[in-house]
Amino acid sequence: MSTTPDQPHGGHQDLVVRPDGTLPERFPDPGMEPHRSRKSDLDEKHAKKVERQVVALFAVSVIGTLVFLVAYFTLPVGTPADIKVSNLTLGLGLAFALLGIGTAAVHWAKALMNDHEVVDERHPVQSSPEVREAAVQALKDGAEDSKIGRRGVLKGAMVSALALFPLAIVVPLVGEVGEDWNVGKFKRTIWARGVRLVKDPDGRPIKASDVTIGSVFHVIPENLEEAEHPLDEKAKAVVLVVRMDPRDLKETEERKSWSYDGIVAYSKVCTHVGCPVALYEQQTHHLLCPCHQSTFDISDGARIVFGPASRPLPQLPIEVDSEGYLVAQSDFHEPVGPSFWERLT
């Protein structure tokens, strides 16, 4: 199908077909579409309105950063409800701080900066002195096109937003200086000989007869409330109790006494990055971490079946007391939680 040179097609001029039916060797340069001026280019009042909008967006960023900083220093984090409120406020503050800067920059570029299309011809890697001088001049022209020099309020709003926003990143990092970085604390929990296993969160002791094959209990130590920092201790001591057919258990000689009639107890804290491992598949006896899909076989010492975790889940040795309740024989025999620089394997 041939068309005349002036016939429009897709917004561009079609190629001229030669009399012999062949096409030319090169595509003709269609050129640029005519420049269409924006309302802010033609009306200074509208340009001022856009400027106020950009200033307002930078102000949103400033307010977001201030909300983040105030929340970081003032909101308590003692209870789960406090932590939820703190995280929500910090997240919203950081979101508005970033959103304000990003939206302001886009709106500024689209409505105020020069939008004339230009062609920059490809040139050798090493530019001549004349070209370098032209590049410097282009940067100066760009600064002029942005109109930042003639819009003091806009410049002040941008500088304020950009100057304050890094505090939302730096302050939490600096706040960690002087904190307790002793990873040795993860080698010990408040589990000890004779401490009863109780249900989380109601705190009811668990009898071995209550645990049927295939059932799962989320467990904490009975003496948790006696700890100086209960939430911290709970984060380390949470345990998952499962009962399976004793014939399905593959136990080493050392660990044969750590279970009771098919009942085993393993740390819920994933050894990858510490997420709660809580998804149990009865048929395969696999525990799945929902964060990064590390999978552990609790019928075989919580052996790693799949995923990035580098070591099995620590097992809590358990037994039954004189009243039939499940109790710990001792603390974990290895650190709970992620593998760190003191525990790489």
UniProtKB/TrEMBL annotation:
InterPro entries (alphabetical): QcrA_N, Rieske_2Fe-2S, Rieske_2Fe-2S_sf, Rieske_Fe-S_prot, Rieske_Fe-S_prot_C
Region (Disordered): 1-45
Biased composition (Basic and acidic residues): 26-45
Entries under SUPFAM superfamilies matching the protein: ISP domain (SSF50022)
GO terms, molecular function: 2 iron, 2 sulfur cluster binding; metal ion binding; monooxygenase activity; oxidoreductase activity, acting on paired donors, with incorporation or reduction of molecular oxygen
PROSITE patterns found in the cross-reference section: RIESKE
Record family assignment: Belongs to the Rieske iron-sulfur protein family.
Subcellular location: Cell membrane
Record's protein name: Cytochrome bc1 complex Rieske iron-sulfur subunit
Record-annotated membrane-spanning stretches: 54-75, 87-106, 156-175
Function: Iron-sulfur subunit of the cytochrome bc1 complex, an essential component of the respiratory electron transport chain required for ATP synthesis. The bc1 complex catalyzes the oxidation of menaquinol and the reduction of cytochrome c in the respiratory chain. The bc1 complex operates through a Q-cycle mechanism that couples electron transfer to generation of the proton gradient that drives ATP synthesis.
Gene3D superfamilies, per the entry: Rieske [2Fe-2S] iron-sulphur domain
GO cellular component, one term: plasma membrane
